[in-house]
């Protein structure tokens, strides 16, 4: 029994490593961390009903590496902590995938006793509709599916691979849809060029010293 338990634990940890954003190594070659200046609010996609506001932020490394250093650290630590606790791996396993796309979703109450349905949020990318295959709650208020005014509940959503953060995508919820990611793409592309320039400038003194 101990051997079976240990084998399950090892398998779960391997799945954790697979599910945590897989582009991290590739991004290290193209987008250095620590040089971004964008704020989370600059690129998050927002939707609002009469009762709640929804904020959606892809946790892809190509996106979050362009955020300010403290925001990038906070998000990576958040994902790592959930991966270490096997929450993300368990959600991915239930969803039948090993390389899920991670997205942070926040629901904010506008009026008292505002109700929300987490499963109704979808993303359309490259003409394909993606529904969440797993949800990892980050807030104790999540399970009530109800918020007071100015109260919020956040979670990490898992989607099947195939969502492209470098292209237009649409976020939908209960009949509402937002294409605001097109603006976010422009900001990210501009910031990507600036980040590479900043990194090159910082590297020059080191190169000269060798």
Q: How would you describe what is shown here?
A:
- With 210 residues, this protein is α+β, with helices and mostly antiparallel strands.
- It has one domain (2-24, 35-197).
- It has seven helices and eleven strands.
- It has helices at 2-19, 24-30, 40-43, 61-64, 69-84, 87-95, 181-209; strands at residues 45-48, 52-58, 101-109, 114-115, 121-125, 128-130, 134-137, 146-147, 152-159, 169-173, 176-178.
- The strands form three sheets. The protein has a five-stranded antiparallel beta sheet with strand order 1-2-3-9-7. Strands 6-5-10-11 form a four-stranded antiparallel beta sheet, with no helix packed on it.
In total, the number of domains comes to 1
**Helix proportion of residues, in percent?**
40-55%
What value does the Rg take, in angstroms?
Answer: 19 Å
How many extended strands? 11
Compute the number of helices: 7
Mean pLDDT, rounded to whole units?
Answer: 86
Order of helices and strands: HHHEEHHHEEEEEEEEEH
Features:
single chain, 210 residues, alpha+beta, 5-stranded antiparallel β-sheet, 4-stranded antiparallel β-sheet, 7 helices, 11 strands, 41% helix, globular, disordered N terminus
Quick structural summary:
This protein is α+β, with helices and mostly antiparallel strands and 210 residues long.
Fold blueprint:
Elements: H1 2-19, H2 24-30, H3 40-43, E1 45-48, E2 52-58, H4 61-64, H5 69-84, H6 87-95, E3 101-109, E4 114-115, E5 121-125, E6 128-130, E7 134-137, E8 146-147, E9 152-159, E10 169-173, E11 176-178, H7 181-209
Antiparallel strand pairs: 1-2, 2-3, 3-9, 4-8, 5-6, 5-10, 7-9, 10-11
Helix pairs in contact: 1-6
